[in-house]
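Slide 14.
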Amino acid sequence: MKSMFKSLGIATTLAGGLAVLATTAIAQEVTLRAHHFLPPSHNTQAKVLQPWADKIEKESEGRIKIEIFPSMQLGGKPPQLLDQARDGVADIVWSLPGYTAGRYPKIAAFELPFMISTAEATSQAVQEYYEKHAQDEFEDLHVLWFHTHARGFFHTREKVIDSADDLDGMKMRAPNRGIGTAMESLGAASVFMPVPALPAALSKGVVDGATLPWEIVPALKVNELAPIHTEIEGDRGLYTAVFVFAMNKDKYESLPDDLKKILDDNSGLAMAKTTGAIWDEGEQSGIDVSKKSNNTFVTMPQSEVDKIKEKTKVVTEKWISDMGDEGQKLYDDANALIEKYSK
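Slide 15: predicted structure.
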């Protein structure tokens, strides 16, 4: 009888211990460090990352906390951010795959000339394209979502750009290989640099101008440094750049299933759409500050836009060729997805 009670006591103790362990597992808390390269006042943090972090914390009842480190506060340079997520220096990063030329060739389809309608539509197109065609390029990361900025334009220090020939001989900052090669096809010299380096490059005359969306103009004081702006109208803009919110894969996989679900429910296509829409909305602030600075605004004639399209075809043709047998299919599907989400 004593033996039986002793056994029951041990069993009860074990059961209690397992219950405590189970409760501890369920109540697991985690703090994630998110790292990016722009100041905290920029829309990426103020209107995307911070509200997202607050929503994650609320839905997890405080079990997921996200600390945001802007302006490269964890060290390194913007092109190193995706490696930082891969290596665990940061848990979450916001960066551009195009900052590491050649590493993500499939996703670069959207950085070819004239592959942008609106940021909202094109961001969704990139997200679906990634899920269909490019997961292998990011297999060592946990992708949260992609997005693009709105249409990029020419912003120059001194010279008005209102024809395809006006770029000949100019030094233009380019964000990625696609637009850099396009500028070269128009006679310009492409200077690659992360966007935080642009103000110094403009003020010192390292570059004569840059390709940028309106949204980033106030943060970089482009209205003061490059006060001549050339817009390109039509159903497609000159170019865009692809951005990604990515997470350390091991950190994501270490989370309990219920916390993974919270992150999953706040990722993917819905966040691509939301982020793209915020970038579209942000365009007006750049226009407004440039108007207040009495900047010069130019709209390139359609006949000159057609010349640019013709001259930059070689960039797209080379990308298709470099991608091999699937190149044309990938390009066609990227275009079809932009059309799908632009309706």
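Speaker note: The chain has a mean pLDDT of 93.
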